[in-house]
Design brief:
This protein has a domain of about 140 residues. Helices cover about 20% and strands about 45% of the residues. The chain is built from 5 helices and 13 strands. A 12-stranded antiparallel barrel has the order 1-2-3-4-5-6-7-8-10-11-12-13. A hairpin with a 4-residue loop joins strand 9 and strand 10. The N terminus is likely disordered.
Length: about 325
């Protein structure tokens, strides 16, 4: 009986010891958790002016978010910022520095300051005229920059070894719009009749649908005035085979019997040329032209025994460089 009582007291002492150990461990764990808890305690929802909490989300959006790297809250103490390295004081970059670093860019020439030139023999051809074989030429040239240029135009015709028509024009051309130039200068007629000088001005350029247009007005001696209109188009049948129609119209203000020119609509020329470009700069061609005199100019031609209209077969060479 005494042995059973002793065993029972030993068990009770063991249970009390275990319970004490459990209590001590729970208290230690609670203290450790409290020291490592970074979250702020829940705040009570602020009451709105009307006693409700409906406007709390709007108020909550104005609160500053908690810094996840709050070193004081984590017990790490205040962090000291590292000193920044001082940037060296560099001198400003000059044009000489850029030229030394980029020689190709620094030596690049602006295109509109470059002087260029161009010469075109648009028509250099043999024609089968009623009066015999004829040699016809129509040339243009320019030299200058993109905006301002010196323009030269030359036209003429020789029939059976005689110069029937010859004129030379010199213009200052100024670009006033994309593809368009204003021109002003002088024109000198050598044939037909005695030599005559004109003041000239007009426009030239590329019209819609790629029609090349020249419109020039002339003021001559004794109050004579004239207008010349010319338009041509290049139709690419292939990359090298090109069909070129051309129309030219001349109108004069007064009669000039010495040169066989009448007032009003004087002459028209319609041409069709088909060329093949062996190179872009060299192209032989064949074609046909139809010339017609009108009004008083036709009357002067009849009085001189000349034909009023003439259709010619042509063969020629187009050159530019």
């Amino acid at each position: 009986m005494s042995t059973q009582i002793t065993t029972t007291h030993a068990d009770r002492r063991l249970y009390v010891l275990l319970a004490a150990m459990l209590c001590l461990g729970g208290a230690s764990f609670g203290a450790w958790a409290q020291s490592h808890n970074h979250a702020k305690p829940l705040e009570k929802l602020p009451a709105s002016t009307d006693g409700t909490e409906a406007d709390y989300p709007a108020r909550q959006s104005t609160q500053q978010p908690e810094d996840p790297f709050d070193h004081e809250a984590m017990g790490h103490g205040q962090m000291t910022a590292l000193p920044r390295a001082k940037e060296p004081d560099l001198p400003p970059i000059t044009d000489a520095d850029r030229a030394a670093a980029f020689p190709d860019v620094a030596g690049h020439t602006v295109h509109d300051q470059t002087i260029n030139s161009f010469v075109l023999f648009d028509q250099l051809e043999w024609q089968d005229a009623d009066e015999g074989s004829a040699l016809n030429w129509d040339a243009k040239a320019w030299v200058g920059r993109d905006i301002d240029r010196l323009w030269l135009r030359a036209e003429g015709e020789r029939v059976d070894g005689r110069t029937e028509e010859s004129e030379l024009e010199a213009f200052w051309g100024h670009s006033f719009a994309r593809w368009w130039d204003f021109v002003a200068g002088v024109r000198q007629d050598f044939r037909p009749g005695p030599s005559q000088s004109w003041a000239a001005f007009g426009v030239q350029g590329l019209a819609p649908y790629k029609f090349e247009v020249e419109a020039t007005a002339y003021l001559g001696e004794s109050g004579q005035a004239a207008v010349q209109l010319e338009a041509e188009y290049e139709l690419l049948l292939t990359n090298r085979l090109i069909l070129q129609p051309l129309v030219e119209v001349n109108v004069y203000a007064e009669d000039d019997p010495q040169r066989g020119i009448g007032s009003g609509l004087s002459t028209t020329e319609v041409g069709l040329r088909l060329r093949y470009e062996l190179r872009r700069e060299l192209a032989p061609y064949i074609g046909v032209t139809w010339d017609r005199k009108w009004g008083n100019t036709a009357d002067f031609a009849r009085l001189n025994g000349a034909s009023v209209e003439d259709m010619r077969w042509i063969a020629g060479l187009r050159i530019w460089f």
